[in-house]
Records
---
Amino acid sequence: MADDNITITFNCGKCRTQLSWPDDACDSTEICCKQCGERAGTYGELREKGTEAARKEVESMLQKAFENWR
Ligand SMILES: [Zn+2]
């Protein structure tokens, strides 16, 4: 594998701008698009989605690794 890093990014549902949040964001911090102001949800909600996406990515990576291994 060339790149083991899993990068999860979130984009605004309206204008597709990549969302960012402060380092000290907590679960109840509202994340809004810097470009158009669209509310993306709370940091906790996004983190949950990100965790789920990362889990799926790891699963598919493992699956591929085992397919090659056989
Ligand atoms: Zn936006």
Note: The chain has one helix and two strands.
---
Amino acid sequence: MTRLRMPLPKEGKDKLRWKAHQDKEREKVRQRFVQNGWRCEGCNQRLYQAPEVHHCFSRTFILGEPWASSAELCAALCHNNQLTDKVGCHERVTNHVDPKLEYRLRETAARRFYAAHKTRYPSSLNPDGAVRRLVKKLEREAA
Ligand SMILES: [Zn+2]
């Protein structure tokens, strides 16, 4: 038997700290997906399996927790379809091959985020700027 040269990484403190929050938010995304008739929030295709949960602002726009995983800022997206070779919405946005879809998902998420916090959406800002603005406001209020 081969011995590992390095110990296996332990789960980081931050990761454990946010796990319950992330699980709760992922469940909210799943409920929204069910309420929307099991449709991908990217292409509106009817799915027959659980969606992949995409963090609309986590890769190109670094957002800390609890915001990055909040249900409003996540989208339920379709998987790759191995039968038809169709590349799923999640892979398309994760690999940045569909900037229009990425932008639309971020804008929809930002508007959902504003609605959840009962704040009027600033149409003059792009989704990144809008989300940054509201996060700053919420963090100021919480401090
Ligand atoms: Zn899709």
Note: The chain has a mean pLDDT of 89.
